[in-house]
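Could you help me review a protein record that somebody else here produced? What it holds is a sequence and that sequence's fold in C-alpha cell form. I have pasted the whole thing underneath without changing anything:
=====
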Amino acid sequence: MRLFKAHIFLAVLISVGLFSCKSKPDKNDTVNPLVIKGIYSCAPGSKTFQACGKQTELWVADSSAQLELKYSQLVSFEKPGEPVYIEVEGEKIKSATGGNGAAYDSTLVVKKLIKITKDIPADCK
C-alpha cells in the first residue's frame, strides 16, 4: 500500500512539474511584433516604403489587405504615388528574384496597418 501511494505521489509531482514548465513560443507566433514607421507611396507598378531616418526604399507586400485599400481612400486617384505616413506591424525580408519587387533588395511585408495619414511628421521626411 505504501509503495502504491509513493507511485501516485511521484506521478502527481511529475505531472505538476511538466505542466508548470513554459514552452517556447512557436516560430510563427508574434510575441513582440515589429512596428515600423515611415513614408509609403503607391502608384501603378510601384509600392514603396522608406523608414523614418533611412535612405533605403523597400518594396511593399500587403498581407493585411488594408494598406492599399486605406491608401486609395486617402489619396485621390488623380495623384497616384503621393507619399503618406504609415505605422505598420510587419517584417523586412529579402526580395524575390522575380516579379515587381525584384528591383529592391528588401521587401516590407505588412501584417497589420496601425496608422495611415497624409500628415507626415517633421522627423520623418
About this structure: The chain has one domain: 35-124. The chain has a mean pLDDT of 81.
